[in-house]
Amino acid sequence: MAVTKRMNDMMIRGSVDASRTGATNAPAIQTKTKSLLKHSPQTKLSTNLSSQEDRRKKEQSEKDVNIAELNKNDRVNKWLILELIGKGAFGCVYKVGYHGERYALKFDLGCCAEKPLLIEKNVLELARKAKSKHICRLIDHGNYFGFEYIVMTLVGKSLRDILIERKRKKLSAGCVISVGLQCVEAIEELHRVGFIHRDIKPSNFATGRNDLSHGVRKIFLIDFGLSYHYIDSNDQIKQMKRSIGFKGTLRYAALGCHRRSPPGRRDDLESWMYQQIEFTKGYLPWKNLEDELAVMNVKEAVRTNDGMQKLLKSCPKKYMEIMKYICKLKHTARPDYDLIYKLLRKILFEARLQEYPYDWEYESLRYFRKK
């Protein structure tokens, strides 16, 4: 009320002065009046209420969007939703389209303090710069109603899905060695850009797609949410000063992970070796164990000569050399990937195994035609 009365008095005085002098001070009076209105308590209150309402509407709209249950033909910015591929505790993945091409769009649900999607984005950016062959290409990244997402190459079935579909739960001799070679190549590519995967397993390797030039014979390493950047800004191995929790999947985790040792490149190769044995035999000795300590005890036992012979029974003899080499590595050591490639190729040559066609090629043709 006091402000309003003061403005009225000013306007009256201005009018009287103008009539006396024959000139007008209206612009100056209007400017001063606007300034008083701008700083008046009523105006400030109105502005605050308006901004609070805008924030409330934005927060409400974000709550109304269930990011894990988007419908077909919904749009995430320019990306057209085609179908939900899968979802978990921390994120979900959709098949999306843009200008007739298909891609994978992954959302971060914001439930994890470690921000796995940001880690994955960093890995994909570095892999793209390094021109990696076995890591998906990062296409786009953005934000949709407060949820971060990345868009990348759409791959085919995971190796786990392929194993589940096979009656004997294993791959043929030539296929398993050829696939093993590609998996090690993928792991080496990841290590070259400064990351350790920490969750190597069949569900984190996938085939390519028939509608792409490389087809279903190409193996991709996917899902880098648990990956660890093991080198510092000076390209030196990081020295971890604190104990870390269990990272990975119980069945395939390296022994060092069970012991809560600092992660190393050898751990990814040890997990790959367990996967390779499972592909060859159809099972691992601890597959039915659910207690971490029990699994760790079995993995320690197979490092003895007798235990390793039992583990590798009915596997190619070169597996023993590879396994012993991996077990001897220090966690800071750079693995000799070429040695592993050489031993795997010796298996192919000595047993006269045929790499192609892969076991799933004809099934994949039918699968993609349905899509």
From TrEMBL:
InterPro entries hit by this protein: CK1_Ser-Thr_kinase (IPR050235), Kinase-like_dom_sf (IPR011009), Prot_kinase_dom (IPR000719), Protein_kinase_ATP_BS (IPR017441)
Region annotation (Disordered) ranges: 31-64
Residues the record lists as binding ATP: 106
Comp. bias intervals (Polar residues): 31-51
Gene3D superfamilies noted in UniProt: Transferase(Phosphotransferase) domain 1
Gene Ontology molecular function terms on file: ATP binding; protein kinase activity
Coiled-coil parts of chain: none
Record keywords: ATP-binding, Nucleotide-binding
Bias-annotated ranges (Basic and acidic residues): 52-64
Boundaries of every Protein kinase domain copy: 79-349
Protein name: Protein kinase domain-containing protein
Taxonomic source organism: Brugia timori
Upper lineage: Eukaryota, Metazoa, Ecdysozoa, Nematoda, Chromadorea
